[in-house]
Amino acid sequence: MPTLSVFLDVPLAQKLEGSLLKTYKQDNCPNKMFLAYKVCMSNKGQPWVSSVVRKTRLQIAQDPSLNYEYMPVMGMKSFIQASLKLLFGRHNQVIVENRVGGVHTVGDNGAFQLGAQFLKIWRQDSQAVYIISSRKEPHGLVFQDMGFKVSEYSFWDPKKLRVDPNVLLNVVEQAPHGCIFVIGNTGDCKLTQSQWARLMASMKRKQIFPFFDIPYQGLSTGDLEEDTNFLQYFVSQGFEFFCSQSLSKTFGIYDEGVGILVVVALNNQLLLCVLSQLMTLTRALWLNSPSRGARIITSILCNPALQGEWKHSLKGLVEDIMLTKEKVKEKLRLLGTPGSWDHITDQSGPHSYLGLNSEQVEYLVKEKHIYIPKDGQINFTCINACNIDYITQSINEAVLSIKGSQ
Amino acid sequence: MPTLSVFLDVPLAQKLEGSLLKTYKQDNCPNKMFLAYKVCMSNKGQPWVSSVVRKTRLQIAQDPSLNYEYMPVMGMKSFIQASLKLLFGRHNQVIVENRVGGVHTVGDNGAFQLGAQFLKIWRQDSQAVYIISSRKEPHGLVFQDMGFKVSEYSFWDPKKLRVDPNVLLNVVEQAPHGCIFVIGNTGDCKLTQSQWARLMASMKRKQIFPFFDIPYQGLSTGDLEEDTNFLQYFVSQGFEFFCSQSLSKTFGIYDEGVGILVVVALNNQLLLCVLSQLMTLTRALWLNSPSRGARIITSILCNPALQGEWKHSLKGLVEDIMLTKEKVKEKLRLLGTPGSWDHITDQSGPHSYLGLNSEQVEYLVKEKHIYIPKDGQINFTCINACNIDYITQSINEAVLSIKGSQ
């Protein structure tokens, strides 16, 4: 009997991302290169892994005392505690007052999925979300799929080639009352004390709920504490917030995606209520999150020697990033490429804007087989001794061929 | 400035499960025991781990050629392929015709979460779900939380102390048109050929969508193929279906919860559409599922010697379960406990009904500190040489104190 398919009305889903990578993979040019990997790359063009990770992996595999039982629904307790200490510092007010907690989440989007589900249920009157453009995909889509109205913003001023704190202030001031504001790495957005005060006053007045996004603590400045200092402002002003704390990237265990949905509440009682609701959601979402990544990270964070070694490796990575940026700038200067390239070294972290316009980016992709996202934000760890000359010469060509719009 | 909490209206969530385990943990009696663990226990009262797993873990940790890059959004390809071959057999029609596929899922509930999200969007006219009572929690709750109307059913006839295929047939015949039917382990539900034909005819006529639940292939009969033979009936009758294939339990890697949402469609084109939609959902749900569990399982399944060792260990576990059941029955017979206890050995797999009524169960919990769920379904791997005498004597006491209702 011929049957009609149950799936007859299901169309092929539009590919949302990865099309640049796909085009790159299909390119047969031997000189092709991809400068938009999510992960940090080592000097040898391999995904960066902290030296301490391999050792810890082996130790765990050889440990006869470990059992492989289910973890609690909330995840690995010691992992959550160690991660919160890393984020806030051991003696932070929220830790001492027992009003910060977390749920162990899965993958890169788990914390956003969980947080968004909670906000969908418990903040029904505020279904507008603001998110920085570069994180619209994948995190913004999580909110969008759930029916939130998602708006994008950007700190980066492509004309002035710099990050502009006023953009952030203006976006907040124009945002609707009670919206959710996803705030990512503010490292390059050097707000003055009075700008911070103005930002937080606006957010308080409009009851904007902050949802922080910490994808790689320590990779901006090389200093773990400095990178998350801005959270202290919010804590001290009595904000309640969520934070997606991702930990896989700073250890180099990309295939064990693991993180925390961090909750800061005004007091312990409120915190426990929120965590209990999150537990119910977690149970439905995955029930028993995989432990491997959490175990590696916890082993490192809870051992001072290993933690020291990890921090050292992280610092080395950040120094490499800064050095690469310096070299790119210097080479462009030697080539006499028009324009100031200070904006390259003014930005921190692996992902920074080259400061090219879309035609120049297109030139690099089409003519030079250098794959770069449309906004020109690249991963500087993809540049190494083998490809830096080709890349800087190509940028020079692109700039000379297509004059900037200013 | 004192602030009102954002979380003011969030109540403490009701604890949904684990209350039996919690009571057990709070019990100070030295003789207390818990017979409802989800995982299989070894003779020594530890979670069972296949002997081949430890070796494989170590091999993976020592492998210098492995990188730790992000996996594709759909998960580890080799893992999905190996798992599908395990489920259907290498030469199955759906594999040959390229119309079966899968998505690598996370934890115990990941496949249900993903499948339910898909069905919520793409089968809006069929939002009723039938699920076997013992799986209502946790899987049924996933559907319920998403707004499906969830109904429970049970094969087990507590009067006749046996599994009754007619119950399944009746439930299907009374179920609404187009509903979703979650079908778990049918090992004990010995349908005749004509009963299978009747069941599938009903399901076809009513356009009922089967969502199979394979939590531990091989643990019913000790034979991997025999355990999933019933899927062939559905394939041969041209059904399209989903299947949650969980793999952690049969390898003993409970803390690396991993599985597959299996999709069978009428042809490859339909399959690709469904998989593309699932990919979009997966990206929002977790994005980059952890690889560890999948890597261990794939290493074992793709190596004939390791696979043989794993199958052998699984068979050993099933033999232990059968032996324990025989011993329990024999001891109850020697004690002269009223009633036939054949139903214990008639059931297969680790989780089977003791055949006690709720007062008898309560007697065991309250008087004997033996923690058993209300329906009397226990995990027989929790019984070992150290506790079998206490357990059987207590069952005897419970039965003598409280006569059964028949």
Automatic annotation (TrEMBL), chains A, B:
Domain Aminotransferase class I/classII large: 49-394
UniProt keywords, alphabetically: Aminotransferase, Pyridoxal phosphate, Transferase
First-level EC class: transferase
Keyword Ribosomal protein: no
Pfam families: Aminotran_1_2
CDD domains in UniProt: AAT_like
Keyword Transferase appears in the UniProt entry: yes
Enzyme Commission number: 2.6.1.1
Cofactor(s) needed by this chain: pyridoxal 5'-phosphate
Assigned protein family: Belongs to the class-I pyridoxal-phosphate-dependent aminotransferase family.
Subunit text: Homodimer.
Protein name according to UniProt: aspartate transaminase
Organism from which the protein derives: Felis catus
Phylogenetic classification of the source organism: Eukaryota, Metazoa, Chordata, Craniata, Vertebrata
Name of the gene: GOT1L1
